[in-house]
Amino acid sequence: RFDSEVSGSLTVRSTGPALVKIAPIAVTGGLSAIGTVTLTEAAPAGGLAVQLSSDSSSVIVPASVVVPAGKTIATFTAQTSGVTRTTIGTVTASANGLSAAGTLTVLGTPLATFTLAPTAVSGGQSVLGQVTIAASSSADTVVDLASALPATVQIPAMVTIPAGKKSATFTVTTSKVMKAVSVKVTASSGGIVKSVSLNVKL
């Protein structure tokens, strides 16, 4: 008679999120995107509830989404709100101790026009700049500004278009120069960059 003992281990595989994708990957604040949760394997009988969360107040998702029994994917809507400047929100899906995450870029309101008046001055004089967005936003819109030659043309680093408004103005100052020079000034918001050349004369 032989006595034998068999030992081993049983691995129980959990079903949970393996991937979160959001399309499109970037939207202007106020618009929505569609998120897709993909599971590691088909959902069990009765379906699987997947918890959703966002780390950004500008990206709003439902508390959960249910993947139907026998299916591996479910979709949800990610709604965005107006943002002061472009931001990235991370959406996390979790169930049965597993989690996956995807990102959504929320763009600031796109810049429509950028002007300087006048576009030619003598060094030491100032000009008026104006930025305009196509439609007013529910949040302040920050437009980033830059001068290619700060020693000659000085501008603020940014200008804010208040919520509900479509434009804002700012002052550009210049320094005296030894010879005439053309300086590029740029403004950007919502992924749109526009530039104007300011001619500074003697």
At a glance:
The protein is mostly beta strands and 202 residues long. The protein is 0% helix and 57% strand.
Q: What layout of secondary structure does this protein have?
A:
Layout: E1 17-23, E2 26-28, E3 32-39, E4 48-54, E5 59-60, E6 64-67, E7 73-80, E8 87-95, E9 98-107, E10 111-117, E11 120-122, E12 126-133, E13 141-147, E14 153-154, E15 158-161, E16 167-174, E17 181-189, E18 192-201
Parallel strand pairs: 2-9, 11-18
Antiparallel strand pairs: 1-3, 3-7, 4-6, 4-8, 5-7, 8-9, 10-12, 12-16, 13-15, 13-17, 14-16, 17-18
What does this structure look like?
- This protein has 202 residues and is mainly β.
- 0% of the residues lie in helices and 57% in strands.
- The strands form four sheets. The chain has a five-stranded mixed beta sheet with strand order 2-9-8-4-6, with no helix packed on it. It has a five-stranded mixed beta sheet with strand order 11-18-17-13-15, with no helix packed on it.
- The mean pLDDT is 93.
Order of helices and strands: EEEEEEEEEEEEEEEEEE
Shape: rod-shaped
- The radius of gyration over CA amounts to 27 Å
Strand content: over 45%
Helix fraction bin? under 10%
Could you say which structural class the secondary elements and strand pairing correspond to? mainly beta
**If strands are numbered along the chain, what order do they take across the biggest sheet?**
2-9-8-4-6
Query: Helix tally?
Result: 0
List low-confidence stretches.
Answer: none
**If you average the pLDDT, what whole number results?**
93
How many β-strand runs? 18
Largest sheet: 5 strands, mixed
- Alpha-carbon distance between the two ends: 111 Å
